[in-house]
Amino acid sequence: MSYRNPKIIDDKSGQVLGQAIAQGAANLGQGIMGMEKARRDALALEKKEAKDKADKTVLDNRNEARLRADYNQRRFVYEENLKKTFAGFTPFLTQEHEVANQQQFDISVEGQVYGAGGASFNEREKGVYSTINSINSLTTDLIAVSSAFDKYVSKGGALDETTFWKSYGMDDGSGNIVPDNGSRTGLLGMSLGGVPDYTAELVRIDKDLKRDDDEYIADKGINIKITDPKGVDTYISQAEFSVMARQMFLEKDGNASVQQIDAQTKAFFVANKITGKTEFNESFVDSKREVTVINNKKREIYQRQLINNKGMEEKRDAIIAKRTAVIMGRIDQPQMLKETLQDLNINEAEFKALKVDTTALNPLTLAQTQRTYLQEKGLELFNKTSQIKEGKGGQLYYDVLQSSVSAADDETIAQVENQYYTNAFASLSDTKNIKADLTTIFEIGSGREIKMGTSRYYPFDMTINDAGVITVTKTGIMAAGGGTGGQGGVGGGINTDKKPYNMKNREDVLNFIYATTPLLPKDARALRDTIISRYATNATN
Prior knowledge:
Blueprint: H1 13-22, H2 28-84, H3 90-112, H4 119-152, E1 163-165, E2 170-171, E3 177-178, H5 183-192, E4 199-205, E5 209-210, E6 216-218, E7 221-227, E8 233-237, H6 238-246, E9 249-251, H7 256-268, E10 269-271, E11 278-280, E12 285-294, E13 298-307, H8 309-328, H9 334-343, H10 348-352, H11 366-385, E14 389-390, E15 396-406, H12 413-426, H13 434-441, E16 449-452, E17 456-458, E18 462-464, E19 469-473, E20 498-502, H14 506-516, H15 521-535
Parallel strand pairs: 12-16
Antiparallel strand pairs: 1-9, 2-3, 4-7, 5-6, 7-8, 10-11, 12-13, 13-15, 14-15, 16-17, 18-19, 19-20
Helix pairs in contact: 1-2, 2-3, 2-4, 3-4, 4-6, 7-8, 7-11, 8-11, 12-15, 14-15
């Protein structure tokens, strides 16, 4: 690099000497001495300027060498990156990078060698740096995206059943984002992933591109032009691609129903440190009682754990709310949403048909309507899968099987129970203590509940007095007008939830047996006769 307009040194030393001689003899000595000094000064100035010129040339050469070295280093890094990306993009990226770097070099020379400056220069400098950074960023994004395709995209272009193209939508040119169901990301992935009949090229568009029908299709600047097997072109701007490159895929993290059930299990069940068995979390249990369930072929005894409704419901609602939030986060990802709804056995069409609720006192937004709907579905799933049941009066409970007796293939549980009662009375002592005997045989006062089939159900305990009157509490819910004492209360009515049976009265004994045992009529009458003959020699009818 050299000066474009080098300064010419005008040597006037000879002219000065001639003038000195002409001044005359009187001034000859003085003139010669003076002009000689001037000549020496002129020569010294010439020498100094020549040296300054040489020094500046050296400095300029050093600056230029440094700038060129920087340029070459950038070129090396760029070319190394380019080797790793897509060969089809090489000519475009090379040309763009070459032009931008040359512009940067020229501007650097202007500023550092010729001292150019000012606002206009600074803006040009910023623009060139921005262009280079943009190209480098595009190359980096291409490299990042290319590394993901082997994992997700098969030779046929399909994703596995748990992976989906992420939906980003498209700017319609007015700042509105139009949903695309992940199709644009899919086109990008298949074209860059080497799927047959999909091609991609880099193009620079000078102005926003629209079709003949004025439909907006592309941004000004660098775009990835994708052509599908049908020959349809799709443009993705560099800005869009930069966003897509960060996450092109969504991976489904498991079945939504299974995840909720797992969360329920972890919340309400713990492993017994001694037995290792899974048990209901004691922190949610208020009290326990025994439950006897009798059907045609089996007699089972459960430990019924009565649950703290408020604590359990708070935990349950938190689990459902968390799952609902996950689903709501997939609203703008149609493919992922579809799969999630299927997991939960939710009708996709029904969900999409939800609208803003304008009938409510405080109208709900669409999002609020969707959230409420999903919470209801979450509650349904909880009720089906949690093993937590709701009893009369809304009391929640969890049953743990303690023992089970099954009838043989050729008999019923009624026959098994009849044999039990026959043996039990035969083994009694001769004391004939009605309270003690019946307490043992019928497990009175144990706090157990008795349920037979679907119609005979006495869920609360029984008591017996010394006279042999057994009082059965049927539900634990006081009837209207009845008091808690069982024989009257508010309103003066009888508490029909409590039923007394005089075990020395033939009719009461038979009704008691029918109410609390599965015995068949013939066996029930025989058991009645056994009780009456043992405890009521003068039995009443």
